[in-house]
Fold each of these.
Amino acid sequence: MTAQTGYPNHPKIAIYPGSFDPITFGHLDIIRRAIMLFDQVIVAVARNREKRPLFSEQERMEMIKNCVTDLPGVEVDCFHGLLVDYARKKGATAMIRGLRAVSDFEYEFQMALVNRKISEDLITVFLMTHDKYSYLNSSIVKELVSLGADVGCFVPAYVKERLYDKLRKK
Ligand code: PNS
C-alpha cells in the first residue's frame, strides 16, 4: 500500500463522487458527516453519459455549490474517466459512499472491490445516512416533481426551484 495517509501533516482529502441529479438532503447529510472526518471533501459530479441526466454537469455543480456555502472544507468539482485516476490527481486517499439500506449494499460492495483492485491507494468509506433519508433518492424526487408533488422536505429550496423550472415550466 502506498496511501498518503502515513504522512501526519498531509491533509486528509476524500472524494464524494456521484451523479447528484440533483443533490438531495440525503447527499447533504453524508457531506456533513464526511467533513467531520476529513480536512477536505471534494464533491465530484460524474460525467456519466449512460445515465442521461436531467441536469447538465454545470447545473448539478451549481446546485451543490449553492447548498454547501456554510461548509468550509467542501469543494465541488466534476470528473470523467476513472474515479481512481481522478482521486489520485486530487491527492485523495478516500472515497465516500452513502449507504441507505441493505439494497444499496451489493452495488456498493462491487464498486468498492473493483476500485480496490485497480488502485490500492483509494479506501472506500461507507457512511450511513440519517434514517429519515433512508428511502430518498434523486430519481424519486424527479418523479414526484413531474407528478405535481411538493418536494420541499427532500431537497433544499434552491434545488426545488431548479426542478420546477426543468420539469414543470413547459
Ligand atoms: O450516484 P451514482 O450514480 O451511484 O455514482 C456512481 C459513480 C459516479 C460513483 C460511479 O459510476 C463511478 O465511479 N463512475 C466513474 C467511472 C469509474 O471509475 N468506474 C469504475 C467504478 S466500478
Note: Residues 17-19, 46, 48, 82-83, 111, 114-115 surround 4'-phosphopantetheine (CB under 6 Å).
Amino acid sequence: MKNVIVTGGGSGIGRAICQRLAEDGNHVVILDLDESAGTETVGLIKEAGGSAECLACDVSSTESVQEVFAGILKIDALVNCAGIASIGKAADTTPEEMDRIYGVNVKGIYHCIHFAIPKMIQGGGGAIVNMASMAAKVGIQERFAYSMSKGAAVSMTLSVARDYLAEGIRANCICPARIHTPFVDGYLEKNYPEEERAGMFQKLSEYQPIGRMGKPSEVAELAAFLCSDKAAFITGSAYDIDGGATLLR
Ligand code: NAP
C-alpha cells in the first residue's frame, strides 16, 4: 500500500483528492489546519472501506511541518492542496496580506516538498502534485497576491521536476479554473446579499466556456492519475482543468 500525503484534505478539492486516492488503495495521510474537518474526511474514507489518518498541521509553519513529517516514515506521493485566496489589485494589497498568502500558498508548498523529498529519495522515488491555478497563466482581475503565489507553485514544480529526475521523483502541477467548493459558497455568502447569489453563481459558471464550474471530483481524478504509476512518463507539466477557460476564452 502506498503512503500518500495530502495537505488541505479537510475540505473541497483536497477532500475529493483524499477520497479518490483512497479508492485507488493508497493509505492517505491528511494534513490540515482544521483537524476536525480532516478527521471528517478520514471518516468518509473509512466508511467507504479505505485507509486514512489525519494530522493537524499548519503548512505555513516550518516547525509544524517539520514535526509532522518527522513522524511519517514513508512517503510515496505528496499532494500540496492547502491554499487560501486573496482578492485585490497590487495597490490595495497590504504587505501583511502579501506575507499571509506567501506563507501558506508558497512557503507551505516549499515546507512540504523540503521535508518530503529526503524520504522519497530513501524510498526510491515518488510523485509530487502541486495545486496551482489558471491564475498562474492568465491575468485574472484583482488577484494580485493569489496569482503571485500560484505562479510560484508552477515554477517550484518545474524546479523540483528538473532537480530530482535522477532520484525518480516526478513533479507536476494542476491549474484549475473555478471549481465548486465551500470556498466559492463562502465567497458568495460573504460578498453578496442572498437575492443576488444565484445570479452571481451563474456568472461565475459562465466564465468557463463549457458553461459550469468544475467539480472537486474531476480535479481529484487528475491528481490521482498524476500520483499513480500510470503517469510514469509525466513530469514537469502544468495541467489545465478549466472547461476551456485558459485557451478558449
Ligand atoms: P478550501 O475548500 O478552502 O480547502 C482548503 C483547505 O486547506 C482547507 O481545509 C483549509 O483548512 C486548508 N488550509 C488552509 N490553510 C492551511 C494551512 N496553513 N495549513 C494547512 N491547511 C490549510 O479550498 P479549495 O477550493 O478546495 O482549494 C484547494 C486548492 O485549490 C487551493 O490551493 C486553491 O488555491 C486551489 N484552487 C481552487 C480553485 C477553486 O475554484 N476552488 C481554483 C483553482 C485553484 P481551513 O478550512 O481550516 O482553513
Note: Residues 3-179+215-241 form a domain with the Rossmann fold fold (CATH 3.40.50.720).
